């Protein structure tokens, strides 16, 4: 309470209400998608099957899976006119800035033909977003390096197609390495959904006003961009570059800096708002990182050595133990993406691509049920009522 103005603690923004999609137990390091543990999904499923599960609540049978995947394939191309939109950006524009603009622009192509209260229209919007995100993401990369856009290849898997659109050119074909494609698909899966984190809550709040799904996803992309959230994977690589020398003395020096309140250096990829135990996604990511670097004969990568030493030291250091700081999903993902050849300014774009299914599943869950506009209140800290001074 603040003088005349009282804050009703019972008020909850109705946009961030209950959900059946994802369960997290931060104390035990548990992450379930529609009841299935992330570790089992990462081992046995793939990203498109996980998309179906998050959106529909159950795993697809063979026929449902085939129908879903062929529908996604039919929507991978973007309207040819959307390619003009890219040409308005400077070549050195950050790919997240481009993606945020282009996804919002999808509203201009589909808004008039979309009734968010029609389950079929909501389903088609979800399919369009799942299908087009890799195409638009790869286009934002191609534009930044001055290469022509590559059209999607529907004879490839979701992850293979993304890598193809990123690295193939009209002069040179690109056959994705199956180990790298599998690692890419696993990165998509591990970032797919995470309950009501900052960007998902943004999508829910925007959606609670009745805004169209493309505008809501653009709002989610904007929220994800921050270094405390989805921008952390890019920040981890910048941190590893800053540490540079993988000698024990140098690594110890940076660990001390991370504990120094007056030092802006933080261990990016460490800590989490919810997990006060290991982030289960980080364990799977670390295993995938080892597989990729082994496949590329780069197990002696100095940045991997630095990351592993940072983790080992932090897990035994009371500063981190007291504060329950463990590696999170972003700690190893950047090393994998860099090894695959993806530039750091594309890392958060890949997080946004992966999280699109989480965002659109939460949006769909809210819109298909009872909901009201979200309206968080505040703790007013300003002046009490006062009169305007007489002239
Ligand atoms: C994601 O919400 C989600 O689900 C997000 C996400 C998802 O899938 O959507 O999981 C994705 O965003 C993962 C997080 C990625 N961010 C980073 O890796 C950035 C580095 N981490 C920190 O910014 C921080 O840990 C946060 C933002 C992630 C969490 O911050 P909290 O829970 O608010 O913790 P805090 O700021 O209250 O810190 C508690 C203490 C503080 O020290 P004291 O003031 O108590 O002495 O821990 C310290 C902090 O200074 N601390 C760190 C630290 N993170 C927290 N110290 C050094 N290095 C760090 N990384």
Automatic annotation (TrEMBL):
It comes from the Bacteria. GO terms for cellular component: cytoplasm. GO terms for molecular function: citrate synthase activity. It catalyses: oxaloacetate + acetyl-CoA + H2O = citrate + CoA + H(+). Keywords: Transferase, Tricarboxylic acid cycle. InterPro entries: Citrate_synth-like_lrg_a-sub (IPR016142), Citrate_synth-like_sm_a-sub (IPR016143), Citrate_synthase (IPR002020), Citrate_synthase_AS (IPR019810), Citrate_synthase_bac-typ (IPR024176), Citrate_synthase_sf (IPR036969), Citrate_synthase_typ-I (IPR010953). Pfam families: Citrate_synt (PF00285). The active site is at residues 272, 330. Pathway: Carbohydrate metabolism; tricarboxylic acid cycle; isocitrate from oxaloacetate: step 1/2. One of its GO terms (biological process) is tricarboxylic acid cycle. Coiled coil: none annotated. NCBIfam families: cit_synth_I (TIGR01798), PRK05614.1 (NF004126). Belongs to the citrate synthase family. This is Citrate synthase. The lineage of its organism: Bacteria, Pseudomonadati, Pseudomonadota, Gammaproteobacteria, Oceanospirillales.
């Amino acid at each position: 309470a603040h003088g005349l103005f009282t804050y009703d603690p019972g008020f909850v923004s109705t946009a961030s209400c209950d959900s059946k999609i994802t369960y997290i137990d931060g104390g035990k390091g548990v992450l379930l998608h529609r009841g299935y543990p992330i570790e089992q999904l990462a081992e046995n499923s793939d990203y498109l099957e996980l998309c179906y599960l998050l959106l529909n609540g159950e795993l697809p049978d063979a026929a449902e899976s085939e129908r879903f995947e062929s529908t996604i394939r039919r929507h991978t191309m973007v309207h040819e006119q959307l390619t003009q939109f890219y040409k308005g950006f400077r070549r050195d524009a950050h790919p997240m800035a481009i993606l945020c603009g282009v996804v919002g622009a999808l509203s201009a192509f589909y808004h008039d033909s979309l009734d968010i209260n029609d389950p079929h229209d909501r389903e088609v919007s979800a399919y369009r977003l799942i299908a087009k995100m890799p195409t638009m993401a790869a286009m934002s990369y191609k534009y930044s390096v001055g290469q022509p856009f590559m059209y999607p290849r529907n004879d490839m898997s979701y992850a293979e197609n993304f890598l193809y659109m990123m690295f193939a050119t009209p002069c040179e074909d690109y056959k994705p390495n199956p180990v790298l494609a599998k690692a890419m698909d696993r990165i998509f899966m591990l970032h797919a959904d995470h309950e009501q984190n900052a960007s998902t809550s943004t999508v829910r709040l925007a959606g609670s006003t009745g805004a169209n799904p493309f505008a809501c996803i653009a709002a989610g992309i904007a929220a994800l961009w921050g270094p405390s959230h989805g921008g952390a994977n890019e920040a981890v690589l910048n941190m590893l570059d800053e540490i540079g020398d993988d000698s024990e003395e140098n690594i110890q020096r940076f660990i001390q800096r991370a504990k120094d309140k007056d030092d802006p250096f933080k261990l990016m990829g460490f800590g989490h708002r919810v997990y006060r135990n290991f982030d289960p996604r980080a364990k799977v990511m670390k295993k995938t990182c080892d597989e990729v670097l082994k496949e590329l004969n780069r197990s002696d990568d100095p940045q991997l050595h630095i990351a592993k030493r940072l983790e080992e030291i932090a897990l035994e250091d009371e500063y981190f133990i007291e504060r329950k700081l463990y590696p999170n999903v972003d700690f190893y993902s950047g090393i994998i993406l860099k090894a695959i050849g993806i530039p750091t300014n594309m890392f958060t774009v890949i997080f946004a691509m992966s999280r699109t299914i989480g965002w659109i599943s939460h949006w769909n869950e809210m819109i298909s049920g009872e909901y009201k506009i979200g309206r968080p209140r505040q703790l007013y800290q300003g002046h009490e009522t006062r009169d305007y001074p007489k002239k």
